[in-house]
Design goal:
Elements (H helix, E strand, L loop, with lengths): L1 E4 L2 E4 L2 H24 L13 H43 L5 H78 L6 H22 L5 H4 L1 H34 L25 E3 L6 E3 L12
Antiparallel strand pairs: 1-2, 3-4
Length: 297
């Protein structure tokens, strides 16, 4: 990398390039930390049901609890009935019928029928109360999704604004320091901002919500625009500086072809490489900053 400082070209050293790379890494660490801190998340919010919705949910929960209890009772009653039936059958097969075992079997049968009736009633209550409870829960779930979407949208907008501002600052610093010995530091800032923009693009490129879908595109468009503006500015700067560099290297300021000690025209493009000074009329190399005879600019 060559830097022009006070009309003198200075070569960037390897040490400066290495420090610029290190600076890029540390700037990127800070940028990623700020990027992550810009995430907006309000955490868990206690559901807010209306009194009617709360009553519907409580009734539904109570019906579910009764259904669970009644199903457990049916299971126990079935187990008791199986045991009493087997005991009664064994006694009959042994020709030793027992009135007590028969009464126990019939009582267990009645208990099972009662438990099954309670289960049917509880199941009916669950079906009757479920629509209102589910409607209330669906409304609250939709509200929670809306809050989450709002937080995600704000996070995206804050991150996008942060990166656009960082890119603008990086390009501004780059254009301001392009003739300074601190140009490698400006390049480090620009590199860190560009990498962070790429991180955000990858972070959101897999999202398919409308307002996020355009995010990477907007970031890309702004980055391309700023890059083209910086490139245009750099080209204008080079147009002014390249002739001076070529003259110092004894080259044609127009095409860069080597110019010999004799002759006033370029052997590559045929243009004048020596002309009269506007103030003293002495021969003056085209493209020099000052006249060698009178010193005028």
């Amino acid at each position: 990398m060559n830097i022009q400082v006070d009309n003198e070209e200075i070569q960037t050293t390897r040490g400066e390039k290495a420090l610029a790379l290190v600076l890029t890494v540390f700037l990127l660490i800070g940028g990623i930390w700020a990027y992550e801190k810009l995430e907006i998340h309000h955490g868990y919010v206690q559901p807010s049901y209306t009194p009617a919705e709360q009553a519907a949910i409580s009734t539904y929960d109570a019906a579910q609890q009764r259904l669970y209890v009644s199903r457990s009772a049916v299971g126990r009653a079935q187990n008791r009935l199986v045991l009493s039936r087997e005991a009664y059958r064994t006694a009959i097969e042994a020709h030793q019928p027992s009135a007590k075992l028969g009464a126990r079997y019939r009582a267990d049968s009645r208990r099972l029928e009662a438990a099954q009736a309670a289960e049917r009633a509880a199941s009916s209550a669950v079906r009757r109360t479920a629509p209102a409870a589910r409607a209330a829960q669906d409304r609250e779930a939709a509200a929670a999704d809306a809050r989450s979407s709002h937080d995600a949208r704000n996070t995206f907008l804050f991150r996008l604004g942060f990166l656009l501002a960082l890119l603008a600052v990086a390009f501004f610093v780059f254009t301001r320091l392009r003739t300074s010995r601190y140009l490698p530091a400006a390049c480090a800032l620009l590199g860190a901002a560009t990498i962070l923009a790429f991180v955000m693009g990858v972070d959101y490129v897999s999202d398919y919500v409308g307002w996020r879908d355009l995010g990477p595109l907007v970031l890309s468009a702004v980055g391309v625009t700023l890059s083209l503006l910086a490139f245009w500015s750099l080209q204008r700067y080079l147009v002014r500086r390249i002739p001076l560099r070529r003259v110092r290297k004894r080259e044609c300021p127009f095409c860069g072809y080597p110019v010999g000690a004799q002759g006033t025209h370029c052997e590559g493009c045929g243009r004048d490489v020596v002309a009269e000074c506007e103030k003293c009329s002495a021969p003056r190399r085209v493209g020099t900053a000052h006249c060698a005879a009178c010193g005028s600019a």
